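Anyone up for a design puzzle?
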């Protein structure tokens, strides 16, 4: 029953930014669930090394890699051509590639917006658009094709932390997820997003690179820890397997309860 619900045997998945961090966590989970996983990122050696590492764990599926860049129209066209040269089916597209930019409010550069929005929003939209015919052809009633986008807790709540364009881009990802979820449901394609809190990755290495830092960051999370690979794997398998076939347009908080944090109790001081 568990394999029927959460297995991905026979499925083909593409994960952008799959060489490290959350993308690599997903690739590992998908491969062990039986999928043929195709990962890409700008750094070919990184995705090739990650594919080899995962394949060395003897998954029931497999991982393969190529170099791809979602920051330009030409790069997206090249990714599309490479994917279609490898397969005529695509059951799962994970738009995981993303970048950030941090600077104080008065010094935040225009380039910090242009570059981040190009990758995190325009790249996500246009790659989905290019691969959509193959996704539509691969989805069936009761088992639709899946698009899974990477949002962020910072895109859902006013948590700037100097990463203004990153937070705004992730809010756009959430909204696009809802729009595409509505528009593509009739084509047997679901579109959902994860909104992660802190996980160990290249993007968060400045704050989570070692265990002491990770523990300190986790101390500010309601569940008192940062996320683990199994948290990402469980959530993404749910949304991309038979278990999540009836879910679309959802933004799944994966943040240990950060999205529940509000201000102090309204009348706390008066109550003593």
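Challenge accepted. My sequence:
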């Amino acid at each position: 029953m568990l394999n029927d619900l959460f297995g991905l045997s026979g499925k083909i998945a593409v994960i952008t930014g799959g060489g490290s961090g959350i993308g690599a966590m997903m690739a590992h989970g998908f491969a062990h669930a039986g999928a043929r996983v195709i990962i890409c990122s700008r750094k070919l050696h990184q995705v090739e090394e990650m594919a080899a590492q995962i394949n060395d764990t003897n998954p029931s599926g497999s991982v393969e890699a190529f170099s791809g860049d979602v920051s330009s129209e030409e790069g997206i066209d090249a990714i599309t051509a490479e994917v279609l040269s490898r397969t005529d089916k695509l059951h799962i597209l994970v738009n995981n590639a993303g970048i950030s930019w941090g600077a104080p409010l008065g010094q935040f550069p225009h380039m910090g917006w242009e570059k981040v929005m190009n990758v995190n929003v325009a790249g996500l939209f246009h790659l989905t658009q290019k691969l959509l015919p193959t996704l539509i052809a691969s989805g069936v009633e009761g088992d639709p094709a899946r698009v899974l986008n990477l949002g962020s807790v910072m895109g859902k709540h006013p948590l700037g932390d100097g990463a203004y364009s990153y937070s705004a881009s992730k809010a756009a990802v959430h909204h696009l997820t809802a729009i595409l979820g509505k528009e593509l449901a009739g084509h047997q394609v679901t579109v959902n997003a994860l909104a992660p809190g802190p996980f160990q990755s290249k993007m968060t290495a400045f704050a989570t690179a070692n265990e002491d830092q990770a523990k300190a960051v986790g101390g500010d999370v309601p569940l008192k820890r940062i996320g683990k690979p199994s948290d990402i794997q469980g959530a993404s398998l749910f949304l991309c397997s038979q278990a999540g076939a009836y879910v679309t347009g959802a933004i799944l908080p994966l943040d240990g309860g950060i999205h529940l944090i509000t201000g102090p109790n309204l009348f706390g001081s008066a109550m003593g």
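A detail worth pointing out: The mean pLDDT is 94.
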